[in-house]
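Handout, page 2. Input:
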Amino acid sequence: MQQPHPKAVLTDIFGAALSAVQGRSLIALRSRLEGETWVGDFGGQILRWPLPPGGRVLVVGAGKATASLAQGLEAVLGACIDDGVIVVKHGHAELLDRIRTVEGGHPIPDAAGEAGTRAMLALIDDLTPDDRVFVLLTGGASALLAAPMEGLTLADEAAVTDLLLRSGAAIEEINTVRKRLSRVKGGGLLRAIAPAQCVTLIVSDVPSNDPGMVGSGPTIPDQASQGAALAVLDRYGLADRVPAAVIRHLRDAPVPVASPNSSPVILLANSDTAVDAALARASALGLEIAWIDRRMDGNTHAAANAFVDQLKAAAARRRAGGPPMVLLAAGETTLKVVGTGKGGRNQEFALVAARLLDGEANVAVLAAGTDGTDGPTDAAGAFADGETAARARTAGVDLAAALASNDSYPAFAALGDLLITGPTGTNVMDLVIGVAL
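Output:
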């Protein structure tokens, strides 16, 4: 029997992981309408949420996969939904019947996202205690929800976001700052919804799975200290580079008072959900589990080195007569961008792996974002194997130069090794899969 191509095996496993965390299914298959009560069963967590006949049912939210969640909610609630506004990344809209979709900028907030956020706030203005609001959140909401605090501008938010993303700061650190600059993050949306009740449905893309960090916690009050955001800017040498108005605001403006409103928060899926599905598929393909890292973080290059070390060890066991093996890592590494090239952390991970695996037989790696986008590119990630470096040399592609300038996208495009999925309808951080066949 002919051995399947490593790239096909990697694609198969990645597809199984995506299917398990697809937004529409997470709601449509796990909740239902019983009379005037919405009932959800989320991993044994049962929520029964009455929808008072005298009030309206509204849907708001943001994130790269929020349109998929909205499809699931429309499938369950149908005409019970009176109106809604969600903000998604440009190109990530889906067909919806009762919920309006606005496309905005990601990872840098733009005027379209700001307009969408204004429309959302207008929708929930002057609610009553009988109204009910579903809040849908996935990764990307921090950029897509753009509503600067008084005294700040969209340009201020955009400048701070850009500097933080390039600094190598972790997502939790970035969102600590973004919460303090926004009228909707850090519990701001919850304050705007009061006195109506809301329920928040989350697909997590943060390593800690802290719901207050997904989308910078629009319905979860900010727990950080007064000086926490300034401390992040100082830590990465950005205090003298961000707009002066931002520093004044962080220094002088008090932390907003938390809303007395209560908000059930449901974690629909996270990277563990995807990893478990990937493991099940790998087992069905006859692969033995060699190594798992469910909390991959830290420097992208360091994470790639650690992963390749484990993959080489698995390959050695395979050559010694062991079974074909799979390795999995999920999380979010941090990439300090020093060059002017085009790429993302997953493509750079694969680029590091390609150089380290040069000449290694029967091994391959896929590093990809589960949302279908890696950095400011249309690729989810890239493949690398023991022959990538040799093929690059033949094609005249300088992998070392690409690495030095953070220019991984053109290198993998030239080799035909980009993974391009389009929007996936989910976002649970990154997944790295390695096989030794």
